[in-house]
Write a structure and sequence with these properties.
Number of helices of chain B: 17
Order of helices and strands of chain A: EEEHEEHEHHHEHEHEEH
Number of strands of chain B: 4
Strand order of the largest sheet of chain B: 1-4
Largest sheet of chain B: 2 strands, antiparallel
CATH class of chain B: Mainly Alpha
Oligomer: heterodimer
Radius of gyration of chain A: 19 Å
Structural class of chain A: alpha/beta
Strand content of chain A: 25-35%
Distance between the termini of chain A: 22 Å
Helix content of chain B: over 70%
Largest interface: A-B, 31 and 26 residues
Number of strands of chain A: 10
């Protein structure tokens, strides 16, 4: 039996009268990369916002490391070991790298003043050891706006590894990236598995998803409509399932 | 040599501060050579030191709110309502400074809290919310004071609190200027090196990202408005000690000079970027223009014209610096 890391049980989420998540049940195991796929409006983003503490569910239970938890804020989810990496929102552009790496988790003295030297030193270590930046053009004092999309993602990954997150949530991490940069990001995802970390991976591109994930969960209009292990389904079949879902408008897929 | 200085780490990371300092030096050189008879003597500097802190203290504090990408237009009226409260309590308690000071600053913080809640919890854009509270607090001042002022001469003149707020150190340097410099240093430190200042930058830079990094965006915004309320009250109290009088329009002329000092100082209206030091220099520039222009022999009609010119030049330089960076 694989070891469970996160388990969602009967999760419902409404925004006013709109039911965005309906009875969602999913499990993420340790060391596993799970892809969430589905059209726009399927509820993928809402689901990961529930997991990362941006939204609270209306009902349902969340278990993390087999304990029932209520995730009420992003900082709480980060403390538990859940970290999100977003393409557009991973970092703040005008701030220096070392500040970005520690934002929300600053190293401070007891009066709340930042230990700048320590932060810079640790940030240097993260750039070198976790991300593998060797270029002299990027230093801990660089502003994020000078970095490419892939480099930004690299920093976000490095940050999550440094803080020893157990579950990394990737929301469209390759959106808008060049082929080369996408390759880098997918390598980061593969690297996570070597570290025995788990990840939830959302991407519109089935080719990216198929290469990186171990298991696929298909969401449609707020419900889980299909779940497949990689060895149960080929890439082409997965694409076929998505087309079938799109064309038939059926809620349930035959798995 | 020059290229290596221009490419140095310090210059690269302090372009804003260096630009504003150069602008101020040029301006004071113009004063100095244009009106040598005035600017080689001490009284003009004393006059500056006496008057600048009244809006300078608010400008320093407003830098935090502007860095958030927000604006507060209500502080002139917060100055009004808190000064009225201070005056009424000081006269009503026969000069009990502690009660008057505590309640006036608490009211200032409450007014800031109202602004913060309207912006974060109700979701009203800060420019709109604070126009509302600007009228509300001024209106309340008018209703309560019925248009009359309050003299605090008997309760304040010659007291120890008067001494620490506005007396002249060694008979030369106004105490309020010393407070202003100390507060600038303290606030610059908080702005750059405290967790709160750090969060202000992140929220102002990109609210969604800041939230994803676990920063409590609403709390940061609320605290920023609350501290501006506190410093508005403090500025009002300083003014009252100097004038020994409360008048119902107190604070109303502060809005444009204060915000001009923040923007001239290099803080971006888009948020995420700014400097408290820059605001301090902005205060020196904006606060010296009127007397400077008159001392140069120009008529008072030029004041607004040159004020406008200074603001436009400064913000153009910052926009160009920013454009080069991106």
């Amino acid at each position: 039996m694989p070891e469970q890391l996160l388990k969602l049980e009967n999760i419902y989420k409404n925004f006013g009268n709109v039911k965005v998540l309906k009875d969602v049940n999913i499990t993420i195991n340790k060391g596993e990369v799970v892809a969430l796929i589905g059209d726009n409006g399927a509820g993928k983003s809402t689901l990961i916002k529930v997991i990362t503490g941006v939204h609270s569910p209306n009902s349902g239970k969340i278990f993390f490391k087999e304990n029932e938890v209520q995730i009420k804020s992003v900082s709480q989810s980060r403390k538990m070991g859940i970290e999100a990496v977003y393409q557009e929102r991973a970092l703040c552009d005008q701030q220096e790298l070392y500040r970005n790496i520690f934002a929300g988790r600053e190293i401070t003295n007891s009066f709340g003043f930042l230990k700048i030297k320590e932060q810079r030193k640790e940030a240097e270590r993260i750039l070198r050891d976790y991300i593998g930046f060797t270029s002299k053009a990027i230093t801990v004092d660089s502003q994020v706006m000078g970095l490419s999309g892939g480099e930004k993602q690299g920093v976000a990954f490095g940050r999550s590894l440094y803080f020893n997150s157990d579950l990394i949530v990737l929301d469209e991490p390759t959106m808008g990236l060049s082929i080369q940069e996408t390759e880098k990001v997918l390598n980061f995802v593969k690297g996570l598995k070597n570290e025995n970390k788990s990840a939830i991976f959302i991407d519109h591109n089935i080719i990216h998803v198929y290469g990186a994930a171990d298991r696929f969960i298909i969401l449609d209009r707020g419900e889980v409509v299909g779940e497949f292990l990689k060895d149960q389904i080929s890439r082409e079949e997965l694409v076929q399932k998505m087309i079938q879902l799109h064309e038939s408008g059926k809620i349930k897929l035959e798995g | 040599m020059l290229t290596s200085i221009l490419n140095s780490y310090f210059v690269k990371t302090h372009r804003l501060e260096i630009s504003i300092t150069i602008i101020a030096i040029v301006l004071f050189l113009i004063y100095f050579f244009g009106a040598t008879h005035v600017f080689t003597r001490f009284p003009i500097y004393r006059a500056f030191m006496q008057s600048m802190p009244f809006f300078g203290i608010i400008a320093i504090s407003a830098t935090f709110v502007v860095t958030l990408g927000e604006i507060d237009l209500s502080f002139p009226s917060i100055v009004g309502i808190t000064s009225l409260t201070f005056g009424m309590l000081l006269t009503g308690t026969d000069g009990n400074f502690f009660i008057a000071f505590a309640l006036a600053t608490l009211l200032g913080m409450f007014a800031g809290l109202v602004n913060g809640l309207l912006v974060t919890k109700i979701g009203i854009p800060s420019i709109v919310a604070t126009i509302g509270t600007l009228f509300f607090w001024r209106g309340l001042v008018n209703v309560i004071s019925q248009g009359s002022g309050i003299a605090i001469v008997d309760e304040a003149d010659g007291t120890w609190h008067h001494t620490i707020f506005v007396d002249k150190l060694f008979n030369t340097i106004p105490a309020q200027f010393i407070w202003f410099v100390v507060l600038t240093g303290l606030m610059q430190w908080v702005y750059r090196y405290h967790k709160f200042g750090n969060h202000i930058h992140f929220v102002g830079d990109n609210k969604a990202s800041a939230q994803m990094m676990g920063i409590n965006v609403d709390r940061v915004k609320i605290i920023a408005f609350v501290q501006l309320g506190f410093f508005s009250a403090l500025a009002g109290i300083f003014t009252m000690y100097e004038m020994l009088y409360f008048w119902p329009t107190q604070g109303s002329g502060l809005m444009l000079t204060t915000l001009a000092a923040v923007f001239v100082g290099g803080t971006s209206v888009f948020g995420g970027r700014g400097t408290v030091y820059g605001t301090f220099i902005g205060v020196l520039i904006i606060g010296s223009l009127e007397s400077g222009i008159v001392a140069l022999g120009l008529s008072g009609f030029y004041v607004q014209f040159i004020n406008g010119l200074m603001i436009t030049i400064a913000v153009t330089i910052y926009a160009l610096i920013q454009k080069r960076k991106t």
